[in-house]
């Protein structure tokens, strides 16, 4: 394989992008960007780069370019906080989307323990609350301060600490709040007497890895975050340049592939493949950045996070295969077992900044606003309406063992899946959306590679409601080519959300119904499979998916 590898490596500050020059049309796209002075303008935070409609939002969303300097000012406070809370060695992060994805990849990559709670699944919330409560510190992270999942988790932890016998003051000490200045969460945090750390308000959630949202939980979990900032800062001078600018090479290639620039076949599905060289879990972070930033106005790049370089769906006719990893030793070939179109290797801090810059560049090429998420609210509004007024009763179309089938004429799970996936066509994708416990029901994730093999099409997997803050934007705002498999599950142990008129289970059910409604309103096909017994239902789904792979 190695002797057939072509392509150049473009590098700066230890961040190397290989292969960008071989993506059809990328050189022309890059030349156009350079001729318009885009690299320097973006490095100088010019908000006009995405057109007049995007300018007001861009004006308050470009802080990620130079937030590193402001983040450094936080470091003494964070070091002090870590010492002050040294007796609390179980760090829980309650936060959704951009408020939890970066700290999760930081801690996984640097092998520091961090429990991420980004769900409303009652079983998962219960399990978290029962885990080492006496030595737990909870970081409650929300930029807006108004995210219902995070607010519910905060309420549940507050009550759990109080019921465990901690005084109000002791409970307040066990909660650290990260939010934007002036949010309702900032007020709550101050009133309850918790430490409140204010984040950079000029950075949007999915671009906030190197702000307080990434740094506070990571520091408490024991990460030396200064190293991340150093690695990102080293890349900064390259961002204004027209050459030796790997982030520009990446962005131009992503945009060119999605457009099919120069008459090349469109590659608008982006397989994100970790190459096994020391960066762990970055796919989920990049997935949110790219899907929410580009998936709108019927356009966008669909990130497809695959398990390994050899996993089903890592390659395909309309797929741009991108491997991601740590710095490679001299002479090593990128890819880790797959031949990628692009390989991005380098330290984590530089990866964050490079992908943010590349996404902003791709947004310019695709002529969309990479800083808004106009369709996320559709599902949220539906959820609120359902919570307030109740969902219309729905009877299953059929029951097969431990699985109820909705939205199909089929009588069995195998038939329903076969019929549903038969409609994917040559450009379609299947999104599996599992409103389950991502640890207790982890087996659900095995469906992704199985159905990718069975269909030969890109298949994504997301935990609900986590994905609503990530790929959920693309599902509704991106091209009309998705088919949506929703998996919901009965719960045996629901849990009240303190001082709210609903339980976690009811909230999760309303979130699933709200998103179904938003997809249906756009005529996007939805098949819902409800597991009346989660373990038995998952075994059944797995058997059905295996059967389809044998028939494919
Ligand atoms: O940090 P928060 O305000 O709680 O927001 C968490 C997430 O919520 C929304 O769904 C946005 O679409 C995401 O971009 C954001 O990261």
TrEMBL record:
Instruction: Output the InterPro entries linked to this UniProt entry.
Output: G6P_Isomerase, SIS_dom_sf
Q: Which Gene3D superfamilies match?
A: Glucose-6-phosphate isomerase like protein, domain 1
Which chemical reaction does it catalyze? alpha-D-glucose 6-phosphate = beta-D-fructose 6-phosphate
This entry carries the following GO cellular component terms, namely: cytosol
Q: What is its EC number?
A: 5.3.1.9
**What is the protein's given name?**
Glucose-6-phosphate isomerase
Q: In which pathway does it act?
A: Carbohydrate degradation; glycolysis; D-glyceraldehyde 3-phosphate and glycerone phosphate from D-glucose: step 2/4
Q: What SUPFAM superfamilies does the database record attribute to this sequence?
A: SIS domain
Q: Name one GO biological process term.
A: glucose 6-phosphate metabolic process
Q: Which family does it belong to?
A: Belongs to the GPI family.
Q: Which UniProt keywords apply?
A: Gluconeogenesis, Glycolysis, Isomerase
Single Gene Ontology MF annotation: glucose-6-phosphate isomerase activity
Q: Quote any Pfam family the record assigns.
A: PGI
